């Protein structure tokens, strides 16, 4: 199918983020539904480059079953429109609408299999009514250089301790892909924080007041873990253990991807994948049927990182 940007009608808003709005659209001739991300083009060359990179990374990940399908990108009215597979909610929207540990398990395998995708966080983990979890937004954080430094050094909720230390040591600005310290070890940290957030229903570092508070907490405090109440009987011991492997404070102590994929928690999840998907799918449907799509979309607007 070849299509132009004007062949699509917007149905409703799915959410909004740093670069623009994502809406559900219908292709008029075929009746097919898509998610369309509209990225405002800035005149800033750095941003422009970044946005171009996002498109090229998207192109490379087309065939991965754990990544939302990318149909194409079009320029329109000074914006870039990215057409993707339509999912039903982000895990962030989902857990805020209906917290349940049920959504926790099926995400581990997709995440481990798509690292280093960068920018790992619950709003980039999408779920559909079949209980499938897929990641989106590839490469954005890895390439963000000036744009993050410009918008804020602070309160990047999923960033690893070594990355905030580097950024402070170098006078601000979080490291981009080619700077020391930005390795898959940092992605493993972000994965751990995201899993912890989804498991406990709240971000473990929800209370930072400013970037200095963040740096102090991240570098000097103990690594976050499931609270005793959250852990009590509700989660398998393997999850606690998996989290501590992801959330070692020193990047060198953190487990690497091949090790994580061998971890009993991931093994257990893979072994019961079909059953899990069915169960998660039923749960997702029951929640979404009760939810108003505009209330889900509103969740994204308030994301502050
Ligand atoms: P962020 O990831 O920082 O929240 P984005 O602009 O990437 O910002 O996306 C905004 C929101 O739109 C996401 O949080 C998610 O809820 C929703 N969204 C993005 N892509 C899709 C998609 N393919 N299907 C359904 N919802 C999506
Ligand atoms: Mg996103």
TrEMBL record:
UniProt keyword terms in alphabetical order: ATP-binding, Kinase, Nucleotide-binding, Serine/threonine-protein kinase, Transferase
Gene Ontology biological process terms, A to Z: stress-activated MAPK cascade
UniProt domain Protein kinase: residue ranges: 8-266
GO molecular function: ATP binding; MAP kinase kinase activity; protein serine/threonine kinase activity
E.C. number: 2.7.12.2
Superkingdom to which the source organism belongs: Eukaryota
Recorded family membership: Belongs to the protein kinase superfamily. STE Ser/Thr protein kinase family. MAP kinase kinase subfamily.
Stated name of the protein: mitogen-activated protein kinase kinase
Originating organism: Macrostomum lignano
